[in-house]
UniProtKB/TrEMBL annotation:
Top-level taxonomy: Bacteria, Pseudomonadati, Pseudomonadota, Alphaproteobacteria, Acetobacterales
Domain ABM: 2-98
Keyword Isomerase assigned: no
InterPro entries (UniProt xref): ABM_dom, Dimeric_a/b-barrel, Heme-degrading_MO
Keywords: Monooxygenase, Oxidoreductase
Protein name listed in UniProt: Antibiotic biosynthesis monooxygenase
């Protein structure tokens, strides 16, 4: 299993625009082989930004890497960092990828 996360520092006052952009976007990942789940996370509030993270769970690192080379990925990211969305962020998103070593589930 592989978890891919992007952390976004969203400028204070832009939280609603950022959330609506994500909540109303067309989803292209549902049918991608190896995709398991997606979560949009809202984190701590700081003086100048609110931290958000996109969190996807994949069957394997290879499945995630295949997604990054797919047409579905290009469609999902075609407007990233363009025009009015650029003003929502304090810097570019920060990618973090993790290979899962252990999973503990509810009994």
């Amino acid at each position: 299993m592989f978890i891919a996360m992007n952390r976004f520092r969203v400028a204070r006052g832009s939280e609603t625009d950022f959330e609506q952009m994500w909540l109303n976007r067309e989803v292209h990942v549902r049918s991608v082989p190896g995709f398991q789940s997606f979560h949009l996370l809202r984190g701590p509030e700081n003086e100048d930004h609110v931290l958000y993270a996109s969190h996807t769970v994949w069957a394997s690192k290879a499945a995630f890497e295949d997604w990054t080379r797919s047409e579905a990925f290009r469609l999902a990211h075609k407007d990233a960092g363009q025009g009015s969305t650029r003003s929502l962020y304090l810097g570019p998103p920060q990618f973090e990828g993790f290979e899962v070593l252990q999973t503990v589930e509810r009994a």
